[in-house]
Amino acid sequence: MSTTESTPDQVETEVVIDPNAVSLTINGKTVAARKGELIIAAADRTSDFIPRFCYHPRMKPVGMCRQCLVEVEGPRGPMMVVSCMTPVAEGQVVHTETEQVKKAQEGILELLLANHPLDCPVCDKGGECPLQDQAFSHGPGESRYVEEKRHYEKPIAISDLVFLDRERCILCDRCTRFASEVAGDPLISFTHRGNNTQVLTFPDEPFASYFSGNTVQICPVGALTAKPYRFKARPWDLEETESTCTSCSVGCSTVIQSSRDQVLRFQGHDNDGANWGWLCDRGRFNFESINSDDRFTTPLVKEDASLVPTSWAKALEVAARTIRLAMSSQGANSVAILGGARLANEDARAWAMLASKLGITLHDAQLDDGLSTEVFNLPQATINDATSATTVILLGPDLKEELPVLYLRLRDAATKNRTRIIEFTTKASGLTRYAWKSLNYEPGAQVAAVNAALNDPEIAGQMRKGNVVVVLGRANLAESSDFTAQAYNAIAAAYPAVTVLPVLRRGNIRGAAAAGLTAGDNARNILTAASEGHIECLILLGADPLSDVPDLDLARRALASARNVIAVDTFPTASTLRADVVLPAAAYAERGGTTTNLEGHVLPLSQKITARGTSRPDWMIATELAEQLGADIGVESLNDLTAKDATPQVQQALSVAGSSAPERNSYDLRLVVSRKMYDNAVSTVTSPSLAHLSIGAGIYLNPRDIERLGASVGKDVKVSTSSKSVILTLHADETVLKGTAWVPFNQPGTDIRELLNADDLIVDVRVENLS
Amino acid sequence: MSRLTDANIAIAYEIIGRYPRPKSALIPILHLAQEQDGYVAEDAMKHIAELVGVTPAEVFGTASFYEMFKFEPVGKYLLNICGTMSCALMGAEELMHHAEKRLGIKAGSTTPDGLITLEHAECQAACTEAPCLQVNYRYRFKMTPADLDTLIDDLAAGKLSDEIPSHGVLATVRQRIPAERGVGAVAPEKVNESPEWLDGKSAL
């Protein structure tokens, strides 16, 4: 993992030859800086702190708050400048602590506090508030203002998650800049500029950004507060530890904050290689699920068709007996393990060791909803490689929905750098607005689309300009992943130097793969074997096939026909209901270890609180099961499970089946099923603040198709394949390609998976009016 | 109240065509919306946001800076009585008092028939003609209470409708710039030659 900024040592060693090196003096000390760097940024590498509110190193400076005034010596004597707007210059002499500077800083603070309510005792920010801290360190101590302060209704909800108190606001422009500059969702703006300048949304158009929580974190006062944390704790009561978010595979650095053994908040931590301090709202607020009352707290075993609480000894014994019986009667191939991408690397490794000891070869950490883990063997790119590449090719899911912070990074690269994005998509994605080319394809026609693009002289010219990174993932759960693999191979054949950023979204899929818990398309084979009655014992490691496997019917048949099911999980799910033994696992923040992000970086996971009830870390469960089974895997503590993974074989192309999309009836619509950020994922539905944010089940068609069908928007329609049908509400979406239908995956309401069949290369549906 | 009418959408596109960036047309189109409804309606702001490619919050953020854009319905005539120094010395307060009594409303509100909205105004830059006022931004100088009564009578009788269009209409003649004279939607990075006024040494 790379850390923030280049170290001063590097700069100093390069200073002699580097034309971009600048040397200046801050308070008599010589400071090495880079051309174009701001005085405040250079000063941050010294011990002299310049107070500031609006300046944020990850956003463009605006000079709003004027708190960072310093003196710079010039030909006409010292001059007051805003250090967040003034670039360094060779030989510049800066003073940050003169009488003049002090007077200016005190004056500004007195002005900022003139209308500030000073309600610190009831303010969430009190104790970690830059305004409070700097009023003490750089303020005048008392105010000359006796007039009535500004009054506004407080607080107002500007979104489902964020509250705004305009009285506390000092108009630093951080939240509004974040919204437009970083998130690309300028849904908040300064309004009524003048005496009554205030941050507001448009009436009835909430700040429904996927990244709204970041504004709360960067607010330098208590103006923005987050609903899940309001009045929950005082900062001085919080304990914190650094960790890594595993909601998706980006690997955002987080800080877990807890009080009285309860997780109360996640904050983003600046990691130059990954999240730059940002988090998406799902990752930030799904800490609530850890505290959910729905959690498993004790082992359960099935007695008389219902799950009853039991002791660990009993549960492990039953589990071990189940496995042993299966192995002795039908052999190791009658035991299968599904899941593992939720686990830490160490957990995955312990389970992989157990599996290998017992000779279990049927295991897969994906649920037939990703790509083959071969993608990790392709020539790899890091996130920073992608954001500095000349060309980025998107051949995968909507990153804004599935790997939101990667969307932020690529959006930043496309808007600020010279990176050009070529996107292959079936409907507008979050990055479409920023893409140099957004090329539409029908499901199954990726290869044709890619080949057409590669033959386009303009695109070919762009790709020859510099390095090319392919962002590769599963875009559509209603088509075979073979098409994506073929499309990638076409690119790699034409441009052998391309590197790949694999975007399989499950938190630690890469770690599970490295540990050996995945192998090709095994999930489908396992489920098929189970449905045919060949699986005596199915072990679910935080996997819920009944909710996640695209082919719902296959999952149902598999779970019904597997003789025994052992579930290791944190929450009751549709699949754990079917289990014969439930072993409660420790949740995120309840166990330590490491996780591997999509780039293959091994990142820390920290334990902050005690595991709920008697739940245990997954590695411990594996170890104890091994002991019961007499299969010693030689693990006594977490330390015995430190990474020893072999470097994967490098391959240039993916294995493909060479399938081609079948012809279709012109009346049919090709189905696209993809994920939204908020869906029925366990961590979302068990977080009260996020649970109601899903858009709900529905079918989205191009308005021209709707017109052709004579259907009406908002009404229920019948959506059918040749064998099955479901009822869904019809919506119009201009960005859905004509001739295709888009349905969000795993949403509350009708389950589209009723129509999906694992053997179908493509799913064509017919949409009809009801009655 | 409403989105732009088809006729106004056509005008909006013409305005957008004059600028290198659609969002530069924001303020002229806001005037158009105010001309249509007498004030800038929420739906109109949403519609403008779609037309120029920004969010409604950005439209509102820009529009709400300007005192002359109204976000609530106002009367057909907006009566702004100046109350700054010169006018104050020459009897603006008395004038306002009279207006309030005559119209039966307080400053900042609209007559029940929707004819007149009365407002305090800051300096209107006609200090030599104090006290002055504006009706839909058309000046009336050296006003006495009697003059004000006459003005209100005339407005009510519709005698001034030729001179003073209803609120929101800036001018009775619309500026038309032929398409070939507009800058058009040129991306700045596509402009290669330097602007005329910086054309080499000959300009110096």
Question: What does the model show?
Answer:
The complex is a heterodimer of chains A (771) and B (204). With 771 residues, chain A is of the alpha/beta class. Helix content of chain A is 26%, strand content 21%. In chain A, the strands form 8 sheets. In chain A, strands 15-14-25-24-23-16-17 form a 7-stranded mixed beta sheet, with helices on both faces. Chain A has a 6-stranded mixed beta barrel with strand order 28-32-29-31-30-33. By secondary structure, chain B is α+β, with helices and mostly antiparallel strands. Chain B folds into 2 domains: 6-71 and 170-175 and 182-190, NADH-quinone oxidoreductase subunit E (Arc Repressor Mutant, subunit A), CATH 1.10.10; 77-157, Glutaredoxin (3-Layer(aba) Sandwich), CATH 3.40.30.10. Helices cover 35% and strands 9% of the residues of chain B. A 4-stranded mixed beta sheet of chain B has the order 2-1-3-4, with helices on one face. Chain B is elongated, with a radius of gyration of 21 Å. Chain A binds chain B through residues 180, 185-194, 200-205, and chain B through 42, 45-46, 54-61, 64-65. Chain B: Its cofactor is [2Fe-2S] cluster. Chain B: Pfam families: 2Fe-2S_thioredx (PF01257).
Question: What number is the mean pLDDT of chain B?
Answer: 88
- What is the CATH architecture term of the largest domain in chain B? Orthogonal Bundle
Low-confidence stretches of chain B: 197-204
**Order of strands side by side in the largest beta sheet of chain B?**
2-1-3-4
Taken from the alpha-carbon principal axes, the silhouette of chain A is: globular
Number of domains of chain B: 2
Total beta-strand segments of chain A? 33
Radius of gyration over C-alpha positions of chain A, nearest whole angstrom:
28 Å
End-to-end span of chain B in angstroms?
53 Å
The major beta sheet of chain A can be summarized as: 7 strands, mixed
User: What portion of residues of chain A is helical?
Assistant: 25-40%
Give the mean pLDDT of chain A.
93
